[in-house]
Amino acid sequence: MREAYQIFFKYFNIKFSDIIKFGVEIDTIYPNPKLIQCKWKNLIKSIENNKEVYIRGYGRDAHGTDLYKELYKILLKNNNIKKDPTNNSKPTQLLQKITNFSKKIKQDDKKIEKIINYQVTHIFGRTKNPFLFTAPWNIVWKSKILDPFTGHESIGENPQKYKDSFISKSKELYSMFIEEYNELSSKYFSPGKIEEAFKQMNTHLIIDEKRYQRFKNDAINELKPIE
Asked: 83-88 — which CB contacts under 8 Å span 24+ positions?
């Protein structure tokens, strides 16, 4: 089997373990766990008190986002879940504030350092989950140079090793917040509560059964605890 990445690494005499070390330990910009507690608590309060919070759009052209909004009206009693205007603007704005790095800065803003060729990455995904889309411990700046080796389209042993190392590092940094999220997941998104919410939705939704089943499967994965 001819594997393109292996040929690249061999030609340039690169060890993938060095790429993992560079990406996970050196060049990923993680929010400081000691400085994000307040942002996380404020997000929880907003969700639990029917305030405006955001999720990424769901489905082709985001046409399925209303399904999640309806689900959260039942599970969270929140009528103010909004779709992010660009699907990434709110996490980007938050990450800029909590890391003091930004792709765009004003000339007179000396507190912010400009960065280029970095992208916002959700560590654990779950971007249709209001607790996790703008959770300050679920977003990092990741170097774009690593994306060919680590992005969702990459397959094979090496990308999986990188992902495992990145997740392990993130769990080590943010274990306290993960535990708090898992408690919230158990409180609001237990299997029984989700199933009951699906039944309530099913009584008044006009939707193709195949599409609705796909949504239910996706929602269960979005809302489950982080292992």
From this structure: 83/54, 83/55, 83/56, 83/57, 84/54, 84/55, 84/56, 84/57, 84/133, 87/56, 87/57, 87/62, 87/127, 88/56, 88/120
Which DSSP category does 29 fall into?
B
Question: What are all long-range contacts of 80-86, with beta carbons under 8 Å and residues at least 24 apart?
Answer: 80/50, 80/51, 80/52, 80/53, 81/53, 81/54, 81/55, 81/130, 82/52, 82/53, 82/54, 82/55, 83/54, 83/55, 83/56, 83/57, 84/54, 84/55, 84/56, 84/57, 84/133
For the chain, the 3-state helix, strand and coil shares in percent, each to the nearest 5, are: 55, 10, 35
Please list, in sequence order, all residues whose beta carbon lies within 8 angstroms of the beta carbon of residue 64, skipping any fewer than 6 positions away: 58, 211, 215
What's the whole-number mean pLDDT along residues 159-172?
A: 94
On whether the CB atoms of residues 141 and 101 are closer than 8 A, the answer is yes
d(Cα 178, Cα 172) in Å, to the nearest integer? 10
pLDDT at 209 over 70: yes
pLDDT in tens, 109-138: 667 899 999 999 999 999 999 999 999 999
Domain ranges of the chain: 31-138+174-223
H helices present in 122-174, as ranges: 130-133, 147-150, 157-173
Inter-axis angle of helices 209-223 and 65-75, to 10 degrees?
A: 60
Identify the CA nearest to 71 among candidates 168, 225, 181, 205: 205
